[in-house]
Structure prediction request, 306 residues.
Amino acid sequence: MNDNSDSQERTVMSSTNAIRGALKQADEAPPALVVLVGPTGFVGRQWLLNKADLTIGRSPDCDIYVDDKSLSRSHAKITLNGFDVSILDMNSTNKTAVNEQNLAAMIPRKLQNHDKVKAGNVIFRYLEKGSIEVIANQQLIEKSQKDALTSAYSKGALLEKGPEVIKRSQTLGEPLSVITFDIDFFKKINDGYGHPGGDYVLRELGALLQAKLVRANDYFARYGGEEFVIILQATHLKTASEVADRIRQTVEAHAFIFENKKIPVTISIGVSQYRSDDTWESIYDRADKALYESKQTGRNKVTVAS
Prediction:
């Protein structure tokens, strides 16, 4: 067999393996609800139905939370029983409908693939388990919400998430803290190691935080350039400042090796805590000012906003 035939065979095998991988991934995909019609920022959002019971509503503690006044606080419930997925209306004010047929309250209705579920004025599409659309939607969502270099959430995604967590804290009375940090003397890293070196540091930093330091309920985003933000839900200021210092120490101790050269990397950090009159902009602004103070008073330190 000649080299050209070998190359063609490898290409075919590679394509076949890729297709098998995609199909296997689709087979393992849980069922999902996707918003077709709803408020700005929610259209296109997808929720994976991976718990026995999930509540749809406008209360921030709902599993499927949509900030729309037409929804009741707890509007409808999704129930999983094996491969069967059902929905029932929880005595909502504006009713729940499946394919334009209103449901009687508290009586479950089994869902079929591509059913349209209307809760108030919000319309979802149901996708059954094993749907390749679930994987495709998830990939599109991640591409639109994730920073390609660091795999952290993007600034745009952060600006949508921020007001949502503020509303959750207001409604549930939960504590909330915000950490902002950036890399010290990042321009010197770019000047000394070139932009590939700077990109390596950003990529490695993102991987380090997500592997070791960002907790399951934290929201880690790249705000821009070398600045990052972490939202810590249900977290008091004392714990947040301890988390911040652990991040600082871990980054300082980590070996950033680029082209066989160790790049010294430290970060400066600001921390703030939610107050009852806060907006997302105000809590972020206090953390950012604390970060600026860290940079002005020696760098490689944590400053807690007063």
